[in-house]
């Protein structure tokens, strides 16, 4: 019954120990699960941060692309505005055509002025013709003769007879009538000539006014021509400036298109890389979950193996300590047996040799002295012991071996340290 009670106590102790081990394993598993969940949270947090960073990068790239597209649109608008230079070129052509027309009009007016001057000279020549002069001269001569005749027929007292006008005397005759008719015709011709002269003078004045107008118009046309030339030069400069600006705008547009293409390629690459990273993240997440599960299983097995190993180590340590004790005892017994054998052999030799008791005692004394002498130097007495193996030597030999790093027992080669050899006092 006492044995059964002892076995029951042992079973209860082992059961309580197993319960404690199970609780410890459960606590360890809970801790591992907590660590695992914390690691998963950290991994999820890192993944979220990486995803946020990648989203920000994609957003920045999209903003840059949008900005580049807006700049491209602005440059295209500027380019379209610059392409409107063709209208100014048409205006320039129109100005050149107007200038050419003004030149032709000016040339025509010059021709007209030249013709008018020629007509004026012709009119002057016509006015200065001999026929007109002759007619005028004849009329003047006729007038002079008529005045002379009238003066001859006029009475001395200055009064006409019968109160009749002197011209009445000629009325009845045909000669007088012809003369009067000729005088009337001549007067009429003279008046016509005067009217013609006045008309010609008026025409000359009008032509002078027209010439003055033509000269003023010519001056104006020259000024317009000069202004048109200056405007033409300004337009040329503007055209060259706009051409350089258009070239610069085209260069900027090409650069922006190249930049847009690079940004689109970069965006596509980033999107592909983001997709690959997301796939890799999902794959690593699955692997992490699987590895965490396998790690938990392996940890359970490891804990089990550790407990088994500890038990085995305890058993081995106990058996090793018992074996070492038995070996130590066996070694001491073997040494005693060897010593006794030597004594027996010595006694046998002495019996066979027939030695006396004194010799035997002397031999024992010698052996005892040899036993008390240090087996290492064989000179000094034994006065130190090794606490590891309990072999006895002189203190100087042990100290010398320790200082020269020969830190093993000379007999059994058991290692010793600075605190493993001590003084041994054999005297009273």
TrEMBL record:
Signal sequence annotation: none
EC main group: transferase
Keyword Nucleus: yes
Region (Disordered): 1-51
Keywords from the UniProt entry: Chromatin regulator, Coiled coil, Metal-binding, Nucleus, Transferase, Ubl conjugation pathway, Zinc, Zinc-finger
Ranges annotated as biased composition (Basic and acidic residues): 17-51
Name of the protein in question: E3 ubiquitin protein ligase
Organism in which the protein naturally occurs: Dendroctonus ponderosae (Mountain pine beetle)
